[in-house]
Q: What sequence folds into this?
């Protein structure tokens, strides 16, 4: 059986990156590794669409979110949280842990947070020091309108913190043009690497907030240290996961070679095809405003997704994701981000048709894959 | 040229572990990965010599030190720090960052902290909540007497936090028998893995302190979450560096197969041979109470170690370490920990003889390697 990893993180890693991970370990305080860091930093800026320094942390994405929040906010200060799913809830849990007062702006799972709701919250809470948002809500497949949030937050004293962990390198994300002050992402999604690294870009406006936040108790996640080390010495403050960073160079080179706009276009096509496919099978989309990195389909009434997902893996090698918490068994989440192409999407749709048929759901064989193929065929010219 | 990595972290990684790192990435919320975590947890307990839960963090070793300190101590509380080098200073910097009052017990670099000094500090500061120590001071090559510290701390209300990052799996370290309450180590030394993971074992006494420390502001490094996830679900609270953990299984299996007592014996022999070798060349040891994971030699007057270290790498492929901070140029640090054998030590000594000769230092060719070989030959019986 041929395995295909189609979970919304970790995602598949290119073969040349995997092979790099098997190379002998080298010392991280060396001219060679400083050169790697220099290149990786430049390529991260390219992918982030930013001139800002990108801090490279050895941690999961949650560590990056903690760094963003804890560097900007002190206990007792106020943050507006735009919550559209489980990963938005993580901002809430972080605020609770760090004693930050949370103003919650939430929507039912499956919906995006409308910019108007943020506009009202900012008007009601002019003392908010930060706004926390999620680009791609991995739990529901929703894309939030970060560009619109940025326009609202930029004229205020608040900083905009965005979790782009499953969105960066998938859908357009213009860190500078959209006024994202702290942009947090992780290695194991569209950046095509195993988990273990988080990245946080910090705007000049955010650095001022961070420098003024003298009450913060920080050490491992002190972003100022990462900034100073990378800017002045092309180095890191603590021993980094250097083999992951060296391997990431190859994945980032791949993105640069494809061109970030083309990366977005590819994902847009994969997303459109996957959505057309599941709908043609008779399934409904869960997300009202879908992201392009994963497709979340609702299960029909009386059909539990758990055994289908299990069968997809055991029988067909297709590893997709279940819903989390209250959504477990009710949805199926198929990721198509990073090192993924149109044929991976066709494989996923084909497998889904088969397990639905086996479960007695009336799907016309080929309907899903044909609908996806029609999307892929758009724009392909006959010779 | 054949490269040999002889820095005191990262150290060399076995080939089968490297190859595992090149395998396709898999999903981390799965029965397969829970099985990996179960095995790794058991093998970590074996290497730690503990019945306590070992928390597996995705971070550098410093993240593990922060977790140990920040979970136990609140701002304003007092800790006794036993400092014998740069890595002992890290405890001080952590205390500063977290507002912990530090009682410093330090010795000149090259010496170990005598247990009597801790005895006095404990008597002078009965309100100390913690004692922070370093097993193997990587900056100076010194081994501290953790067993003696443990005997002094155990009857007090204080908890004993030990950084064993470059010592665990090298020299004897009996977490339970020595009363180490929080034992912090990292992946990239004797555990034979690239950097990216930290491990913290926590004693029942320490859990009580941690549970009572309700003022702590923790999220990513909240050890209670790691304990609950690993104990109840064989899982991790946040996306772990799962490829590193899967690969670590192989390195830990290697340690279990060799037997931890034999691992210690091997390192004892490597350390004894390296020390005999550098002394036979006419160099002095820097450490008064040397650890077995690295050998630190003083440079003769008027001889700068920096160009020698550079030449060892460029001309002979031997990557050893310089002194740090004020010790730069004054010492040379040769590591022999983890995936290292007697012939690696001979190679290092041979290279050192050659660059010393080239620098005009009067060393008799073969004196260092012969002295080391004599150590290796001890106990080898003629047939």
A:
């Amino acid at each position: 059986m041929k395995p295909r990893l189609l979970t919304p993180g970790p995602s598949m890693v290119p073969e040349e990156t995997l092979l790099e991970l098997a190379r002998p370990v080298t010392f991280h305080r060396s001219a060679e590794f400083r050169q790697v860091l220099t290149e990786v930093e430049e390529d991260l800026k390219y992918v982030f669409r930013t001139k800002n320094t990108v801090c490279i942390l050895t941690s999961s994405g949650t560590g990056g979110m903690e760094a963003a929040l804890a560097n900007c906010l002190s206990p007792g200060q106020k943050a507006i949280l735009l919550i559209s799913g489980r990963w938005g809830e993580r901002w809430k849990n972080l605020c609770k842990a760090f004693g930050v007062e949370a103003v919650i702006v939430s929507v039912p799972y499956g919906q995006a947070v409308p910019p108007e709701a943020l506009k009202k919250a900012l008007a009601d809470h002019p003392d908010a020091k930060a706004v926390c948002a999620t680009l791609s809500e991995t739990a529901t497949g929703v894309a939030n309108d970060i560009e619109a949030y940025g326009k609202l937050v930029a004229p205020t004293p608040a900083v905009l913190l965005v979790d782009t962990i499953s969105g960066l390198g998938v859908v357009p994300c213009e860190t500078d043009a959209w006024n994202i002050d702290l942009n947090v992402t992780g290695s194991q999604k569209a950046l095509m690497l195993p988990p273990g690294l988080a990245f946080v870009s910090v705007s000049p406006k955010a650095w001022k907030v961070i420098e003024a936040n003298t009450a913060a108790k920080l050490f491992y996640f002190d972003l100022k240290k990462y900034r100073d080390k990378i800017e002045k010495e092309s180095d890191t403050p603590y021993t980094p996961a250097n083999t992951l960073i060296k391997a990431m160079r190859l994945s980032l080179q791949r993105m640069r070679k494809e061109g970030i706009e083309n990366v977005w276009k590819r994902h847009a096509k994969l997303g459109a095809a996957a959505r057309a496919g599941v709908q043609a099978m008779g399934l409904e989309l869960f997300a009202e405003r879908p992201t392009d990195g994963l497709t979340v389909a609702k299960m029909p009434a009386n059909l539990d997704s758990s055994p289908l997902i299990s069968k997809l893996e055991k029988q067909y090698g297709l590893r997709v994701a279940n819903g989390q918490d209250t959504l477990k068994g009710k949805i199926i989440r198929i990721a198509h981000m990073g090192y993924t192409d149109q044929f991976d999407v066709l494989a996923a749709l084909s497998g889904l048709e088969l397990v639905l048929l086996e479960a007695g759901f009336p799907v016309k064989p080929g309907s899903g894959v044909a609908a996806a193929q029609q999307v892929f065929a758009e724009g392909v010219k006959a010779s």
Chain A has a mean pLDDT of 97.
